Every structure is written in structure tokens, then in C-alpha cells.
């Protein structure tokens, strides 16, 4: 319940006593103290915080010294943007002024500025137990009905767009109001049909979006280089279907494709595949935290597309288990409506679809980076392995469709050359003891083979697959380039051990940033990952800089393998990138 001024202060200026819905604070309260009390009241039932009730009539100081905007901003900042309040001054009969802070009831439990979870019990701030906070945290914010929302908040053109999307739905032939009610977007409230926040997100007018969910804005940035500076920006506050259409126009305007010939057919491999980025954008708009006052940010770089999403991943999901974790919907009504309209999958296979398409097109899988209150998804496009695309396409022609797990293993081995069972388990997001069956099956089908024995065992692509990928036999390790022997000692200090799988959480992010390669047996040809790093550093030290083509020539690896190694050396602070693109860029040692 949210109180307005008439509820909090009577027309005669009589202050309500402190209690369950009213808190009295002295004039010298700190911004942090005020924010704590506002958060505690929001976690309880909402109400009013009165500041300056201790001011004496006729005193030189009262709450008039506190500017409402200053208080509003302080509470917004100290609550991490999760609590928006209304602040007004009120003059008492004696002339003194008090500040009334009207606090809404929070849709889910908020944390105080110091990270504690508290509530107002009518007299004191008290801790909130996990059992008390859990049911509130699970409420669906998009299913709420704004108090002043009406049918006028819905745009008929956007409702028609929804109807067009849901033509195959059973409700497609119903009148507009019945169609929206069938989707659960209109519900009786206050004696009339009113739209939920999900309805406004899907078909709201611009005015309704600004009034009820201004945080649904999406900010698009185009970068001509990999630098943080952008050359173009467009802020979009539109219903979700219209947002998807406009974002696709902006991305496609700067998108490029490369044709790959496979027999009589031609496959177009785009820098950013429309199915992939559309799925990524839908995930961001469907599962973001709409209680946060932040927008979704989409950055289009020459070598990647980044989608920055407020709210982080739903509880329990991490970058290391996102493929295996049971789907969790932060906004069930919005997600269910989009599923019934055919825009998202009920089964929660959107992430799997992104992984599969990117791997089939010879690229790296999506990369998730999480923060306490947000998540960033990066779709990299520095180039692709055309031979891998042809290999997968030929397998499909032979009615041997490769599963996502098989694609993950083949793609990792094609990029890295070799991998231990532990590294493959991390990429598959499975416990290591659940990988042998998959790996044995791939061995039996002639896709991979083991190399080495005992603790030094690793997996590599089979000779048949390497031949299909156009990978000639590489020189044996004894005949490695001179730079390898000269720099073998250099790489040891900079190699970082692969991260162990912690207990009890069995899933870890796919492939660590820098991993020490296992000891390579004598029958495996070509340098391993650690040795390629050493050669790259040696070339940069000897010639002042190293390029992708230089590393490929020295190590006999692919363009993508070389790019991946150089990118990791940049991330580790050992090299600095000069120029743009994959082929034109050069890398020099950091002093």
C-alpha cells in the first residue's frame, strides 16, 4: 500500500503517530539512515517517512533545508536503483516544515545500503529471515496491474502486431479484448478490465511505456572499431515486438555475410546470424529484472555483439551451467505470453539454439559474463572455420546430424588442437564422470581419438575428421620450430592452471581463459596451446610485433586458433592490439 499526502498528513497539519506505516526521523538523519528506513518500510507494507518532526516551531532550521530531489536521488542511489520514492514538503500550523517521503510497497525484498535485508516492524528495523523473504521474491512483477492503467494504454496497431504473431494460436480469431484476455494480459481490476505490465510491455503506447515501465528502454550503440567510443546511438522505447524489428534493422544494416559452397548448395555465414541475435535479444527482454530502473544496452562492434542485461541470470543459473540448468523464468506472465505468440520456446531451448547455430557456423559459442546485478552476453564474430561449416553440412547430407554435445567437443578440438577430459567436461558443462560415454561414442564413430596414456591423456580429432577439415599432418613435436625450444621456459611462468571444479557445484564455465596444456605425447604432431603462446610472445619480442598470419605460419594452425591465442594474450596483459579486424591487426608486447 502506498500512502499519499492526504493519508499521511491531515488537512490541519496533524502528523500521524509512528507505527506500522509511518516512521518519524530527526532532522539530522544521514542519507544512509534515511535510505535504510525507506528500504525497511518498503519491505514491510509501504508507508511514509517523516523527516524533521523534531524541529521546534519558529526554529531557524527545519526540513525545508532538504531539497526533495536530493532525497529522491539519494534513496535511489543508495538502494541500487531498486526503490523510487515521492518526496514533498509540508508546513505545519506552527510554521515548521517537515519532509514526507512516500515509500511504495516493494514487489520483492530489497537490500539496505550495507547489504543487509531488513524490514520495519512498526517500531524498529529488524532482519528479514530467508523464509520470510522467499515468497515475496518469487512474485511476478510483469503480472501486476498499475493502479492508473487503462485500456487507453494499449496501442491498437501493436495489438494487431501481436495478433499477426499469434496467428496459429487458438485465440487468434477472437476479438481484441478476448484475444488479450486469453493471453492473460488483461484482468479485472477495480471494476474494469485493466492491462498488466506484461500487456504494456507487449503492446503499450509510448506514453504508457514512459509512465509505467520507462526502464524497458533499449539503447543501441554502433562502434566502428573495437574501442569503447561509439559512432551511432539510438534509444528505443517501444513494445517488445517493435523493439525486435527495429534492432534487427539496425544490426542488419551493418551486418555482412560470407558464402560457403557445399556441393551444389551455398551457405551464407553472417557476422551475426539473425536467428542467434534475435534469440539473444528475446532472452534479454523476456528475463531481465524490470524492477531495476536500468535499460538494456546493445553494443555492435566489428568483431562482436554485446547485450548488457539488468538483473543478472535467474537464481541458480551461471555461465557454467546455463546449458544444463532447468529453465527459470523471472517474468512468468511475459514469458508465457511470448511463448503462446510463438516468439520464445516453452521448453527453454533458446540458449541451446544459439550454441548450436554458432558452432555449426564454425564460430565460438556465446560468452556470458555475470556481475552482481547484471549479465553481459557476447556473440563473437572475428571469423569462422569454413571447413568446419562444410564438414557439419556434409554430415547432415549423409543423415548424420550432429548433436549439440558432439558439436561442442568437435568445435573445441578444432580450435584448440587437443583437450583433456576435464577441459571437455567444462565445455560440455557436465561433471567429468558423465563424459566417458559421450567420448567413447565419438571414438567408436571415428570422430575423435585418444592421445597419450595415464594422467597425460588427451583427446584430438581423428585423422579422418582432420582430413575432412583440410588439416594436413603437422610436424612432430621433436621437429618443432626453433623458436619453440628457445621459448619453452618463457611460457611456464605465464601459463595459468585450469580451474578445478569446486564442490558441491559440478558445473564450471566452458574452457578457462588460459589453461596449461597436458603433457603432449610424442605421437601427437604440432605445438600445443602453451607452446603456441610461447611462439607468439617470441615472435613479438623478435620482430616488435606479431600478426595472425605470422603465428599461423610458425605453428601451422588456423586463423581462428591464432586469433584466439592472441586475444587471450591481450586479456592476460601480455600483448597490446594495434589496428582492427582479424587479418589487419598486429600485436606488440606490453612494456
TrEMBL record:
One of its GO terms (molecular function) is helicase activity. InterPro entries: RecG_C_sf, Schlafen_AlbA_2_dom_sf, WH-like_DNA-bd_sf, WH_DNA-bd_sf. It comes from the Bacteria. It comes from Deinococcus daejeonensis. Signal peptide: none annotated. This is ATP-dependent DNA helicase RecG. Gene3D superfamilies: 3.30.565.60, Schlafen, AAA domain (3.30.950.30), Winged helix-like DNA-binding domain superfamily/Winged helix DNA-binding domain (1.10.10.10). Residues 507-526 are annotated as: Disordered. Keywords: ATP-binding, Helicase, Hydrolase, Nucleotide-binding.
Amino acid at each position: 500500500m502506498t500512502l499519499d499526502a492526504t493519508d499521511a498528513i491531515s488537512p490541519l497539519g496533524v502528523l500521524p503517530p509512528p507505527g506500522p506505516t509511518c516512521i518519524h526521523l530527526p532532522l539530522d538523519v544521514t542519507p544512509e539512515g534515511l535510505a535504510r528506513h525507506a528500504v525497511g518500510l518498503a519491505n514491510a507494507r509501504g508507508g511514509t517517512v517523516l523527516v524533521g518532526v523534531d524541529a521546534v516551531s519558529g526554529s531557524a532550521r527545519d526540513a525545508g533545508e532538504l531539497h526533495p530531489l536530493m532525497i529522491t536521488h539519494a534513496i535511489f542511489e543508495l538502494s541500487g536503483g531498486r526503490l523510487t520514492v515521492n518526496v514533498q514538503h509540508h508546513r505545519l500550523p506552527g510554521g515548521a516544515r517537515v519532509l514526507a517521503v512516500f515509500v511504495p510497497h516493494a514487489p520483492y525484498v530489497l537490500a539496505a545500503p550495507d547489504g543487509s535485508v531488513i524490514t520495519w516492524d512498526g517500531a524498529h528495523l529488524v532482519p528479514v529471515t530467508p523464509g520470510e523473504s522467499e515468497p515475496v521474491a518469487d512474485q511476478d512483477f510483469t503480472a501486476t496491474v498499475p493502479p492508473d492503467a487503462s485500456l487507453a494504454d494499449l496501442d491498437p496497431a501493436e495489438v494487431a502486431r501481436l495478433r499477426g504473431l499469434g496467428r496459429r494460436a487458438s485465440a487468434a480469431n477472437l476479438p481484441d479484448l478476448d484475444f488479450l484476455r486469453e493471453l492473460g494480459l488483461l484482468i479485472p481490476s477495480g471494476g474494469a478490465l485493466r492491462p498488466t505490465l506484461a500487456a504494456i510491455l507487449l503492446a503499450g503506447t509510448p506514453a504508457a511505456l514512459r509512465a509505467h515501465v520507462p526502464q524497458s528502454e533499449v539503447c543501441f550503440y554502433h562502434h566502428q572499431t573495437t574501442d569503447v567510443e561509439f559512432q551511432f546511438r539510438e534509444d528505443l522505447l517501444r513494445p517488445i515486438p517493435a523493439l525486435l524489428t527495429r534492432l534487427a534493422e539496425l544490426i542488419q544494416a551493418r551486418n555482412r555475410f560470407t558464402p560457403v559452397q557445399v556441393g551444389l548448395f551455398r551457405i551464407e555465414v553472417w557476422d551475426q546470424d539473425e536467428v542467434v541475435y534475435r534469440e539473444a535479444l528475446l532472452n534479454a527482454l523476456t528475463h531481465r529484472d524490470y524492477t531495476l530502473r536500468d535499460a538494456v544496452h546493445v553494443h555492435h562492434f566489428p568483431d562482436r555483439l554485446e547485450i548488457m542485461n539488468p538483473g543478472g541470470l535467474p537464481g541458480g543459473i551461471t555461465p557454467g551451467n546455463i546449458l544444463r540448468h532447468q529453465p527459470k523464468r523471472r517474468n512468468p506472465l511475459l514469458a508465457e505470453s511470448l511463448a503462446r505468440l510463438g516468439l520464445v520456446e516453452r521448453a527453454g531451448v533458446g540458449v541451446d539454439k544459439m550454441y548450436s547455430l554458432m558452432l555449426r557456423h564454425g564460430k565460438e559459442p556465446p560468452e556470458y559474463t555475470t556481475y552482481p546485478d547484471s549479465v553481459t552476453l557476447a556473440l563473437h564474430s572475428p571469423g569462422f572455420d569454413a571447413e568446419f561449416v562444410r564438414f557439419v553440412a556434409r554430415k547432415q547430407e549423409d543423415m548424420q546430424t550432429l548433436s549439440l554435445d558432439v558439436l561442442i567437443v568437435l568445435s573445441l578440438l578444432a580450435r584448440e588442437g587437443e583437450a583433456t577430459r576435464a577441459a571437455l567436461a567444462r565445455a560440455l558443462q557436465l561433471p567429468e564422470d558423465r563424459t566417458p560415454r559421450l567420448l567413447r561414442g565419438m571414438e567408436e564413430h571415428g570422430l575423435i581419438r585418444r592421445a597419450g596414456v595415464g594422467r597425460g591423456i588427451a583427446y584430438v580429432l581423428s585423422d579422418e575428421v582432420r582430413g575432412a577439415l583440410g588439416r594436413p599432418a603437422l610436424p612432430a613435436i621433436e621437429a618443432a620450430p626453433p623458436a619453440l625450444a628457445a621459448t619453452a621456459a618463457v611460457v611456464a611462468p605465464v601459463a595459468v592452471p585450469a580451474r578445478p571444479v569446486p564442490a558441491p557445484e559440478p558445473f564450471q564455465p566452458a574452457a578457462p581463459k588460459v589453461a596449461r596444456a597436458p603433457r603432449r605425447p610424442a605421437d601427437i604432431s604440432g605445438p600445443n596451446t602453451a607452446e603456441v603462446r610461447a611462439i607468439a610472445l617470441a615472435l613479438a619480442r623478435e620482430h616488435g610485433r606479431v600478426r595472425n598470419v605470422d603465428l599461423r605460419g610458425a605453428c601451422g594452425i588456423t586463423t581462428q586458433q591464432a586469433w584466439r591465442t592472441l586475444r587471450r594474450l591481450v586479456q592476460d596483459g601480455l600483448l597490446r592490439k594495434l589496428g582492427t579486424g582479424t587479418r589487419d591487426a598486429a600485436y606488440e608486447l606490453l612494456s
